[in-house]
Amino acid sequence: MQFARVAYTLSFTLALVFVVLSGSALASSLCSLGWPSALFDGLTVCTSSIGWAMAMRLSMTYAVYHALLTLLTAGASGDHSVTLFKAFHRRWFFWKNLILAGGAFGSMFIGNTFFSSSYVYISYVGSAVFLVCQMVLLLLLAYRLTIAVSSAKVPALNILYLAVSFGLYGFGLFLKVMNIVWHHSEDTRSVVVCGVSMALDILALVLSLTSGSGAALPPGVWAAVTGVYISQGVYSAVGAAPWAWWLPTLSWTISILLVVTVFLVCMSEMSFDPLFDAGECDLDEMEGLDSEDDDDEDSDTVSYHYFMYHLVMTVASLFMPFSVSGSGTGATQTWDFWVMCGGALLTGLLFSWTLSAPRLFPHRTFGQKSLY
C-alpha cells in the first residue's frame, strides 16, 4: 500500500531526526556538568518534597503507556492460538487501537496539566478522557473474560489469570479515581494510593500477558516495566529542562513518531490479515485459519516485532510526560535535562531499530511468533 509506505518513510526519517536532536542535546548537557556532583544532586533531591509532588502528577500520565501496553500486548500475546480469541482480536485490532491511542494521547497532552492551577478547566477534560480510556480498557478486559469463560478451548488457568487481572485492574482504576478526589500536593495518602495502583497495574499487565497462551513473560518485558518505574523515580526527583526551546521540538517529534508507528502497526495488521481482506468474517470460517496460514506471509512484508514495539512505547512514554510537564529549580535542572535527553536518545534508537530491522534482516521473523 503506497500510503503506508510513505508513512513508513516519514516515520523512519523523523526517528533519525529525533536521534540527532536528542544526541546533540545529551552531548551538550554532558559537557556542561560534572558527573559526580550531578549524581549527588539528583540523589539528594529524591528525598525532597519536589519528588513527592512530581510522583503524584506523573502517576496520572502513566495512563498513556499503560493503556497502549496493556491493550496491544494482550492483543498480541498469544491469544491468536485460540480460534475465538483470534477472531475477536484480529477483527477489532485496528478499531481498539485507533480509539484508545487517540484517547491516551489526548489525556496525555490535556491531562498533564491536571495539577496546574493555570489550566484547571482544561485539565478536568483531560482527566475525564483518562478515566474514559481506563474504563473502556476495563470493559474490553471483561469482554475477553466473558469469551474465555464461554469457550471450551481456553484452559482454566488462563481464565483464572484473566479474572484476577480484571479484578486488579478494576481496583487500580478505583484507586486512581479516589486519588483524584483526595489529591493534595503533599498528601501522603494520595502518594500511597498512587503507588498501590501502579503496583496493581503491573501485576494486571503481567497476568494479562500470560493469560493468552500460558507462555512465560519475556525477560525483556520485565526489564522494560521495571525500568519504567526506576526511571519514574529518577524523573520525579527533578524538574523540567532549563532550555525550553528543546522541549517543543523533542516532544512533538516523539508524538508524531508514536502516532505514525501506531498507524503503521495497524495498517500492517489490516493489509496482510485475511479477515480484513475478506471484509465480513464469520466465526465458523475461522476454523481453518490456523498457524499454517501465518507462515504464508509475503517475504517482503514489514512485520513489526511486538516486543520491540512495546519497549519503544514504554521508553517513549517515559520521556513524553516529563518533557511537557513539571518545573524545577537550582542544580536539579541540568541533571534533569541530562536524564531526559538520555531517555529521548534511547527512544529514538529503539524507533529506528523497530522500523529498520525487518528491512535489514528480511529473512528473520520479527513478529509475535518469535516470542511465543
Automatic annotation (TrEMBL):
<feature type="transmembrane region" description="Helical">
    <location>
        <begin position="51"/>
        <end position="72"/>
    </location>
</feature>
<feature type="transmembrane region" description="Helical">
    <location>
        <begin position="306"/>
        <end position="325"/>
    </location>
</feature>
<feature type="signal peptide">
    <location>
        <begin position="1"/>
        <end position="27"/>
    </location>
</feature>
<keyword id="KW-1133">Transmembrane helix</keyword>
<feature type="transmembrane region" description="Helical">
    <location>
        <begin position="93"/>
        <end position="115"/>
    </location>
</feature>
<comment type="similarity">
    <text>Belongs to the TDE1 family.</text>
</comment>
<keyword id="KW-0812">Transmembrane</keyword>
<keyword id="KW-0732">Signal</keyword>
<dbReference type="Pfam" id="PF03348">
    <property type="entry name" value="Serinc"/>
</dbReference>
<dbReference type="InterPro" id="IPR005016">
    <property type="entry name" value="TDE1/TMS"/>
</dbReference>
<feature type="transmembrane region" description="Helical">
    <location>
        <begin position="337"/>
        <end position="355"/>
    </location>
</feature>
<protein>
    <submittedName>
        <fullName>Serine incorporator/TMS membrane protein</fullName>
    </submittedName>
</protein>
<keyword id="KW-0472">Membrane</keyword>
<feature type="transmembrane region" description="Helical">
    <location>
        <begin position="155"/>
        <end position="178"/>
    </location>
</feature>
<feature type="transmembrane region" description="Helical">
    <location>
        <begin position="244"/>
        <end position="266"/>
    </location>
</feature>
<dbReference type="GO" id="GO:0016020">
    <property type="term" value="C:membrane"/>
</dbReference>
<feature type="transmembrane region" description="Helical">
    <location>
        <begin position="121"/>
        <end position="143"/>
    </location>
</feature>
